[in-house]
Amino acid sequence: MKRFAFFALLVSIALTIPAYATPKAPAAVDASEVKTPKYIFLFIGDGMGKGHVAATEAFKKATQNAPLSFTAFPACGEIFTKCADKPVTDSAAAGTALACGAKANYHAVGIDPKGKSLTSVSTVAKAAGMRVGITTSVTLNHATPASFYANAKVRSLYDDIAKQLPKSKFDFFAAGDVTVKKLKHDAIYKLYRDAGYSVVFGRDGLATLTPGKPAIALHKAKHNDGLPRRILSANAKTPDHITLPDITNKAIELLENPKGFFLMVEGGAIDWASHANAGATMIHETLDFDAAIAVALKFYKAHPADTLIVVTADHETGGLQFDPKGDIKLLSKQTGSDKDLKRIVSAAMKKKVSANAILKSMERFFGAPFTDDERAALTKTHTATATKKTAKNKKNLYGKTSTLAAQAIKLVNKRAGVIWTKSSHSATNVPLYAIGAGSTLFQGKMDNTEIAKRLKALVAKNAAAKK
Prior knowledge:
The chain is an alpha/beta fold and about 475 residues long. It has helices spanning about 1-15, 50-65, 90-100, 120-125, 145, 160-165, 185-195, 200-210, 230-235, 245-255, 270-275, 280-300, 340-350, 355-365, 370-385, 405-415, 450-465, and strands at about 40-45, 75-80, 130-135, 170-175, 200, 215-220, 260-265, 305-310, 315, 320, 395, 400, 420, 425, 430-435, 445. The chain has 17 helices and 16 strands. Residues about 1-25 have low confidence and may be disordered.
């Protein structure tokens, strides 16, 4: 407990320090001085700051009596996240930095501030003869995964980004679906199949994939969304849900070969949950991300001299501060995601259900009663929204949520020790962990562009060794 208290203090202090004044990056490390990995894993927890890690590890220890799989990695540090034109980045500019090793403007994907297209580490790896996989728990052409195979002036050009995917000739892609605007899903799936990709859906489809043909695995056709929220799978039998560990296992099976591979795995829904300030949803997404890292760690243990695992984040979301004195185990009783509670509350408000009845429904959802203070605050909000003195819904980056539901989640989160200070990104530094061949290049403080630069150096060294 003392360790958590000390870590929480550091997290709280870190969140109050303006991290956007990026110091000079350390001199480039000579990759010739380290072991060369043949198998490279890059795990990106979208929006995952130090507070997210601390809260999730406390939850896992409280419910499973086990730490996270990556927090004890021998190499660790933190990275600065500012983008080229703003102190607080978005996932496109941050993804570009992590993928390509160069700064980009806010919302730019694989494009530098002068409009020049950048080359990603995944593209370099493919050119070097390695197999490449790009995977995520959100959609395939969302900002972070897109940064590894596309170039676009703004991240919202989903159709254009989606059409660039087959040009990469990467070996494996996996996600919830592909986001489309004017394009039709059937047209984009046909484009991928015509380019030689197997396109499969669901867990059964994923199981059919075998090495030898490039493949794209999606959770569900035409649903324009990510993988199902993991909190649903934690509280119900959902055998058809694809998870990040499932994807990572299949990626290793498909990518392993004598020339090596590069695999990027993004826990994208960590960010989505954090924008909604939904602690339990965020924790279950981070646990899924952790379980995927555990799959890679198992592979590392079988190939310790040839494997590198790097774990980091693109930015922090929510200004999350973790209080170890909170009842973190309280969040294990929640029966659904923030979206589920929004549906419950919105339906009840539409039927003009009483405050007491709605609060009882929410207590069943959380698996615990509200305190007297929480009940008083929620009753006041119910009255205000019912009389239209307060808006029934509030916005976050990825949509709207019920004002009453959002307040209830925030109050329960606070009691659990998960304290949100904003619903947007912050400028705070994010954690960095590494293990395996070349891991000493990923320790200490560094700019986010250094991740791709150092990975590219290792890929080049690996390629040179084969000649």
